[in-house]
Amino acid sequence: MKLIFVHLFILLAAEQIRSSPTRRLEQFAFEKYLTRARAVLDRVPLIDGHNDFPMSLRDFARNQVGELDINDLTTLEPWASSSSSHTDINRLHTGKVGAQFWSAYVGCTTQYKDAISKTWEQIDVVHRMVEANPTTFEFVTSAQGIENAFSQGKIGSLIGVEGGHSIDSSLAVLRMMYDMGVRYMTMTHSCATPWADNSQVDNPGGVAVHDGLTPFGKTVVAEMNRLGMLIDLSHVSRKTMRDALETSTAPVIFSHSSAYALCNNTRNVPDDILQLVVANGGVVMVNFFPSFVTCSSTATVQDVANHMDHIRNVAGVDHIGIGADYNGITEVPVGLKDVSEYPNLFAELLARGWAEADLEKIAGLNLLRVLRGAEAVRDQMAADGVKPFDEWIPQADLPAESLPCSTGQIKSVKLTTE
Ligand SMILES: *[C@@H]1O[C@H](CO)[C@@H](O)[C@H](O)[C@H]1NC(C)=O
Ligand SMILES: [Zn+2]
Predict the structure, then answer these.
(1) 395 in a domain, yes or no?
(2) Which of 86, 181, 302, 313 could bridge across to 326 with cysteines, CB 3.0–4.6 Å?
(3) pLDDT tens-digit profile of 36-50?
(4) Residue 404: inside a domain, yes or no?
């Protein structure tokens, strides 16, 4: 009985707060910011760096996109009751998403096993999702392509491969993935590849396997520069970040990482690295996962905006983007519950006094600049006659655990004098 009264009181008090004049005034002000935010996203494409919807397609629908209506996934099971289902076509439109890097992700357990075939399956499912929904999506592979799709009201759809284990240490596989439209590769996921360390080595007690990038890892960077594929440094160790920033002649991205100074998760970007990103001309696309935003299981749109403020203070507004990590994360900030709520973040920044021109940059212009920069490096290397890097990873760099699933690099050549 007592409990019921307490509940009633809380409800009444909440109602009081909701309808108080100040509260109504705040609401009115926020609506005005929201209207301006939406207008910004009408002018420039909102380009998100990382969405794991293809992983959901695999886990929830066995990649059977032909059978699936993805306009509204709020009532269809198992999507409806999943805590990591944040994306469908209706909500992408409400959220004013202009372009999306769809993640072709397969976990580290596939390394040295079926990583390549599963990655191809995830690349295939993005292509088929786009083909099955041609009035919504357009498959694009360039900055110009993003702009053309946006001007036709389509969501430009790009592919990022999440984890260097997906190429099985083969530059040939990397090149073929580029040919299938892949425009970034995250150098590692949560495991070392035979050529790069991942972020977990920076956790207390963590031990580096390579101390950053190996010589072959640097060749992977060079070949990505030559191809015009963006180097994504989310998930890698600090030393890998440094080595890649030193090696790359093109601007890099962090497709879904926030600021380490505000939350000391090693998935985030430390301030000293932010300085290097300025020199490199790259972009840090802020992740919305509460574990990376507040280092806890809860966060708000204001907390995410704090990361924007921090990166602006340290690196400047030219190096900020958005990589929410929807469908990959299991908790979401209040005010950014799914892809429909991006405009809230822009309204929050307007309320903090950010200029609309700056919002245009973080929405998409920064990423377009970076992609154009990588395309220019590709074109210059071609003009300079740089040939494909075709060395193989040294056999000695391959760990013993990779050997049972390998038939070896070459057949022994039978010498004959006949
Ligand atoms: C982050 O800070 C907490 C509290 O000081 C500490 O326990 C934890 O080890 C730190 N994490 C890293 C990656 O340094
Ligand atoms: Zn990730």
Answers:
(1) no
(2) 86
(3) 999 999 999 999 999
(4) no
